[in-house]
Specification:
The complex is a heterodimer of chains A (293) and B (233). Chain A has 293 residues and is mainly alpha-helical. Helix content of chain A is 73%, strand content 4%. Chain B is α/β, with parallel strands linked by helices. Classes of the chains: A mainly alpha (293), B alpha/beta (233). The complex binds adenosine-5'-triphosphate and magnesium ion.
Chain lengths: 293, 233
């Protein structure tokens, strides 16, 4: 495989990591929770997409919308049932709850759908085939993945920068008490943040299922961890940092693979996590954490 | 306008506000004075609904708000400029003002923002600037402007003069007077008792969570114990 193709692969994976990592960063930014159930929402999204396309025989666009809506709804339900009651509990209780939810989702999936891999009909979602650019053949799925991811991130950017809700999200993530004094309903904003993060995860689920077309109850775990590394690397809590982090991890993996060390990909990513935590725990673009009551 | 009855507030085991009752009538400036840790900020936070009183009642404009969510209290016409300003440091001046307008309906935002810029021309020059890069005095103006964006009937200010140069303190108190003459009722918490009592109609003196004295501002300015404890003799 030529180096250029490795790079394209890296961009495709980076697009997926970035989308997933944004969910971590947004939730962390607003309630300082490392939501380790985030990856498993993507797994559920994979099943929703799979069944919508096969059992439901839905057209691609409808299946995509159902997947995004399903992930969003699931995240909101989890937030209401599991996290809201812990709003004033110690952070550690929240973190442990998130890990519990992650295990629960994986086991529920195994219970209902068995532990076996199920093939994902990516061709029903995205056009197959490729274009040839300068002697390089690039799959449509790669192009669509990168484009869809960038479009989603642009939409997120607009939301956060220019809408009333987005500004309220920033206000709440900066200072909840002051936000309440502005008349912002903090609970609503937190739920909305979960919903937006999960919608991005829904898009991520589609892109990931097409890239690795085998759906199983555990697919969210590794993806979630790597996206978490991406978020930490870029600066968890910082949206631009997280986008950069996602692409950095995707490209890093591609470079390691291009060097003929594909067996080392996961190891290198987690080594990076360790190095970041030692050298610059706030990540590339993160800010030091300050607490206010 | 505001009537607090038997407020008792705890932080875990710490008993911070002890059986406090007071009131603010429409059109008044009332000040709460007291040393560090007396419980002034705790009282304001409880009125705004950020903390809850164990007992008693808080009525605002004739309605009980002791159990109303803090965001809904803002909507009823109360605003607070919290201690330490608490402007959104990573947001621009203009965005901070927009947040102050969050509960308001309709197209009043531009007009009110212009009103704030007129009162604080310094903010207009810096409207695109991130609030974190403003000076302390400018941040205080922003915090006040932000609170004014909701056209509150009751404005609560928690130590607005803290950390400001004397000239700026004068200016802040002038503005408080102007706002009051324009019809805003004001509850003012201050360590700078001298300035506070000059602008206020009445005052309450707080000591370790209890109200120990109340009188008209002019009487408190003459009161011997108050002079000794809070006015430097
Ligand atoms: N979050 C908190 N947790 C525990 N105790 C607190 C907390 N906030 C305030 N206290 C305590 O409650 C008491 C009243 O504090 P408060 O901040 O209301 O005082 P204050 O009159 O505003 O003081 P200052 O003039 O220094 O601002 C103090 O003894 C303080 O230590
Ligand atoms: Mg205080």
């Amino acid at each position: 495989m030529s180096f250029a193709l490795h790079l394209i692969n890296g961009l495709q994976m980076g697009s997926i990591y970035a989308l997933v990592a944004l969910g971590y960063t947004m939730v962390y930014g607003i309630i300082k929770l490392l939501n380790f159930a985030h990856g498993d929402i993507i797994m559920v999204g994979g099943y929703i997409a799979l069944f919508s396309l096969t059992l439901g025989r839905m057209p691609a666009l409808l299946a995509a919308l159902v997947t995004v809506a399903g992930c969003t709804l699931l995240a909101v339900i989890i937030e209401k049932l599991a996290y809201t009651p812990l709003r004033f509990a110690p952070r550690l209780s929240l973190l442990i709850t998130a890990i519990g939810i992650s295990i629960l989702l994986q086991n529920l999936a195994q219970f209902f759908f068995t532990a076996n891999d199920r093939g994902f009909p990516g061709h029903l979602l995205f056009p197959t085939g490729s274009v040839s650019i300068g002697g390089l053949s690039i799959a449509y799925t790669s192009i669509i993945t990168v484009a869809l991811s960038i479009a989603s991130m642009a939409a997120l950017h607009l939301l956060v920068k220019s809408t009333k809700l987005g500004k309220a999200m920033r206000a709440v993530s900066e200072d909840q008490g002051a936000a309440q004094l502005m008349g912002i309903n903090v609970n609503h904003i937190i739920t909305f943040t979960f919903a937006v993060g999960a919608a991005l995860a829904g898009v991520g689920a589609l892109l990931y299922s097409v890239r690795f077309p085998l759906i199983a109850p555990t697919i969210g775990a590794m993806l979630g961890l790597k996206a978490f590394v991406a978020a930490v690397f870029g600066g968890i809590g910082s949206i631009p940092g997280t986008m950069v982090g996602g692409y950095a991890i995707g490209l890093l993996e591609a470079l390691v693979t291009a060097a003929g060390l594909s067996g080392w990909v996961d190891g290198v990513v987690f080594l990076l996590l360790i190095i970041v935590l030692m050298v610059r725990p706030t990540g590339l673009m993160g800010r030091p954490i300050m607490e206010k009551v | 306008m505001l009537k607090v009855t038997n407020m008792n507030v705890y932080y875990g085991n710490i008993y911070a506000v002890k059986d406090v009752s007071f009131h603010v009538d429409e059109g008044e400036v009332v000040t709460l004075i007291g040393a560090n840790g007396a419980g002034k900020s705790t009282i304001l936070k409880t009125i705004s609904g950020l903390l809850r009183s164990k007992t008693g009642s808080i009525s605002f404009a004739g309605e009980e708000i002791g159990n109303v969510a803090s965001h809904a209290i803002v909507k009823r016409g109360m605003a607070q400029v919290p201690e330490g300003r608490r402007v959104f440091l990573q947001m621009s001046v203009q965005e901070n003002l927009e947040m102050g307008h969050y509960t308001q309906q309709g197209a009043t935002m531009t007009e009110r923002m212009e009103g704030v810029y007129e009162r604080f021309p310094r903010l207009l020059e810096r409207r695109k600037q991130v609030a974190g890069t403003l000076s302390g005095g400018e941040q205080q103006m922003l915090a006040m402007g932000r609170a004014l964006m909701s056209r509150p009937r009751l404005l609560m200010l928690d130590e607005p003069s803290m950390g400001l140069a004397p000239l700026l303190v004068e200016q802040i108190f002038e503005i408080i007077g102007e706002l009051n003459r324009a019809g805003t009722t004001i509850l003012l918490v201050e360590q700078n008792a001298n300035m506070a009592l000059k602008v206020a109609n009445r005052g309450y003196v707080l000591e370790t969570g209890r109200i120990i004295t109340t009188d008209s501002a002019s009487a408190l300015l003459e009161d011997d114990t108050v002079r000794k404890a809070y006015l430097g003799g």
